[in-house]
Amino acid sequence: MARIIEIAGKKWLVGLSWASYENHPNKVELREDADRLESDWVAVRDNQQIVQAGFCPAIEGMKRPVKLASLGAYLADSHEQPWLGTFKIADNLWWYLAVRDGHAILPNGDFIGDEQEVVAARENHSGFMDWNYIEGGLDDLERFLTDIDAKPTMAKSLSSGAISGASLSVITITIAALIGGGYYYWQEKKLQEAQAILQAQQAMKAQLEAGKPLPPAPSPLISTPLPNEWLNACKQIIYKQPLSLYGWELDKVMCDPVSTHIYWLRKTGATVAERPDGILSAEGDSIDQTIDLQNINNSEVDDSIDLEEAKLALRAWAQSAEFTLSINNTSPVVLPGAEPLKDTNGNLLPAPRPQTSFTLDLSVSPLNLDFSSVPGLRLSKINTSGSTWHVEGTLYGK
User: Fold this and answer.
1) Does any domain span residue 30?
2) Residue 219 lies in a domain
3) How buried is 79 (Cβ within 10 angstroms: 0-12 exposed, 13-18 middle, 19+ buried)?
4) Which of 50, 268, 291, 327 has the smallest set of CB atoms within 10 Å of its CB?
5) Is 173 exposed, middle or buried (0-12, 13-18, 19+ CB in 10 A)?
6) What is the structure's pLDDT at 385?
7) What does DSSP assign to residue 318?
8) How many Å is the maximal CA-CA distance in the chain?
9) In a domain, 144, yes or no
10) CA separation for the pair 175, 84 (Å, rounded)
11) What is the pLDDT at residue 149?
12) How far is 86 from 136, CA to CA, in rounded Å?
């Protein structure tokens, strides 16, 4: 239950229920989530990494939150994530805040209650092993607040401006139309990509039939994103995801060259009536949510070196961090003095690019790792595997 606490003469709102969003929520979305959470007030925080809204019922005796800001939102960006804060407010009254990935406040991570309740809330998040723990009292909170120079996230009332049933029906139809339009756009995009590939293959066939030599194969390094940029695009999506949504628990994540897959599992109390977006399994217990990567550009730079030297650079990088590396050494490489490749008409074919695939198994998230020190490296897949991460990619040489 939300409460108002006073620190150095200023009142703050604590104990909100937080939900995460892909984009800034509109009033309809906020009203729907407020109804679901039986709430009257909301505080929306929108920074470069996370969009969240905190909900709570109106405080007894107050119709509207006058000059009340969320203490959790104000502190969430103030320490190196991930962190857990436990603060004694008064005798047998404690406040608990849990923040990680994108400075997001976790579900049930803004909680006020007695010591046993706060300990139980903290235990729910203890499965993560990399927490920074902060403990203190009102004096410590006052000191933290004096070091922060940011705009507070103010609470607002949602009790007015309710939407009529007719208006809600129109909104529902509009949303359905937008979803259908988005699906059509995706289908059209895939069709255009397939047509481009077919046209390139037809042009190559025409050149062969005319007896003309094929042009050199373009470097794959200039048509793929740099590893750090690709990881950043994945991170922007993954960090925005809540750990649970409508009672569905985030189980694992995966990134491929063009999209991120968020996998959800149904937990006790959750139903298919309210669920995350995505493809529902036949049993109705899991969901595969696909989100296209955004703002990602190809590198346009060929930074390759000799393939064997690149392998050594990759192995040295992995060994320095005690990562488990596996390099596929069976990839074809053109040997000195070997006969050049020709088609059936005797035309020269482009030589295959020296390359090798590799995998990495990590005990830490790869989303913040720096792969730029390994020349010619490109990533193609990352996914969680139990408590570890699995990374796949290709190393290109000259």
Assistant:
1) yes
2) no
3) middle
4) 268
5) exposed
6) 67
7) H
8) 89
9) yes
10) 38
11) 81
12) 7
- Which strand (E) or helix (H) includes residue 150? none
State the total domains in the chain. Answer: 4
The parent domain of residue 373 ranges over 297-396
Residue with tokens 């208006």: 167
CA distance 262 to 280: 12
Which residue type is seen at 156?
A: K
Query: Partners of 291 in the beta sheet?
Result: 260
Nearest CA-CA partner of 262 in 226, 240, 291, 233: 291
Q: Give the integer Cα–Cα distance in Å for 65 and 155.
A: 6
328, two tokens: 């596929």
111 and 243 housed in the same domain: no
Is the preceding peptide bond at 215 cis, omega within 30 degrees of 0? no
Give the residues across from 17 on adjacent strands: 55
**Ramachandran sector of residue 272 (left: φ over 0; alpha: ψ -120 to 50; beta: rest):** alpha
360's CB contacts (< 8 A; 6+ apart) are 318, 323, 324, 325, 326, 366, 390, 391, 392, 393
157: β partners: 41
For the stretch 11-53, pLDDT in tens is: 999 999 998 888 888 888 899 889 888 899 999 998 767 889 9
Q: What angle do CA 37, 99, 68 make, to 5 degrees?
A: 55
The DSSP annotation for 48-106 comes to: SS-EEEEEEPPPTT-SS-TT-EEHHHHHHTSSPSSEEEEEEEETTEEEEEEEETTTEEE
> Do 89 and 103 lie in a common domain?
yes
Q: Both 113 and 55 in a single domain?
A: yes
* pLDDT tens, position by position, 122-163: 877 766 656 788 889 999 999 989 888 888 999 999 875 433
Contact 290, 186 (CB under 8 A): no
Residue 129: CB atoms within 10 Å: 7
Which of 242, 272, 292 represents a domain boundary (last residue)?
Answer: 292
Token pair in block for residue 80: 């190196």
Q: Which amino acid is at 73?
A: A
> Which of 5-9, 146-150, 205-209 bottoms out in mean pLDDT, i.e. has the lowest?
205-209
Q: What pLDDT band is residue 285 in, cutting at 50, 70 and 90?
A: very high
Same domain, 19 and 104: yes
Distance CA 4, CA 31 (A): 22
